[in-house]
Design a protein that fits this description.
The protein is built from no helices and 5 strands. Mean pLDDT is 76; it is low at 72-84. The strands form 2 sheets. It has a 3-stranded antiparallel β-sheet, with no helix packed on it. It is mostly beta strands. The protein has a domain at 11-64.
Length: 84
């Protein structure tokens, strides 16, 4: 992928976590959990750690995540849990 800021080639990388990865509008205060308006980028699985494919530009220090490249991604918002 070409960096939209400097025009140089970006390196394919992976953002990994031991927790599910969410795109939130607000910063999490304690544990990084999504709220009802957050988008799930990668869910947790016992067999593999959560990750998101990304592209990194070393010159610009920018990371780009193409959400359409991720297979089986959730396009909606998180659903309210039935537990209270």
């Amino acid at each position: 992928m070409i960096c939209p800021y400097c025009g140089k080639e970006m390196t394919q990388t992976f953002i990994q976590s031991s927790y599910p990865i969410y795109l939130n509008k607000n910063k999490a205060h304690f544990f990084p959990s999504g709220d009802l308006s957050s988008r799930t980028l990668s869910s947790f699985s016992i067999t593999k750690s959560p990750f998101v494919k990304s592209y990194y530009c070393e010159d610009c220090a920018k990371i780009i995540i193409d959400l359409k490249e991720k297979k089986n991604h959730e396009t909606g918002v998180r659903k309210r849990s039935h537990r209270r």
